[in-house]
Amino acid sequence: MIIAERKPLAEIQSLLAGRKWVLLLGCGTCVTVCMAGGEKEVGILAAELRIARQVAGEPIETAEETVQRQCEWEYLDAVADKITSADTVLSLACAIGVQAIAQRFPTVRVVPALNTTFLGLPTEHGVWQERCQACGNCLLGKTGGVCPVARCSKSLMNGPCGGSQRGKCEVNPEIDCGWQLIYDRLSTLGEQDYMLEIEPPRDWRTSRDGGPRKIVREDLRA
Ligand code: SF4
Ligand code: SF4
Fold it and tell me: Is the Cβ–Cβ distance between 53 and 44 less than 8 Å?
């Protein structure tokens, strides 16, 4: 899922400076699961903003709403009246939700309450870890299900850099060496021969390096 975390309150307040009527709009999918922008977080942030502005002598009115997904028109359209009547929409979705509002409602001011951080998973309560950089050409079938792009600090494609110490990465000794993890998994699966295959230079145009990407499914467009 998409992992995000809330911006500092002071930064959010600066984005709302001078605004008097704000709709806080949460999202019921990824950011609810990572506890950054669901219904509960919308309520907490709204209360924090009202209190801070009251104390500053600049009261603010807030409305709260959480849709199933901010990244799809149909859910945004269901709350279009609230979106278009707000002075500013403070989105607690990932950055895709923010941009969806900006595109769907060209005259509406929308600002982010979250920093969208990575694609990952919760590995223990309160801990999320990156697992994918959406490179557009997945290698997991050859690497034991461990991503060399996301989990090797140098995104190496053909084995470790040689700097790993006791299974930890030389870039950051706090994290596991991605290629140690790949080797361990392939060993467990009896698939170490994949380590001997040379991965040719990659065409990074399938990743973000080729500019904004688009998928068109002609079979769905008929
Ligand atoms: S190889 Fe690419 S698509 Fe597959 S997990 Fe890694 S970054 Fe994601
Ligand atoms: S130590 Fe391992 S994870 Fe770190 S950069 Fe080298 S190969 Fe990649």
Answer: no
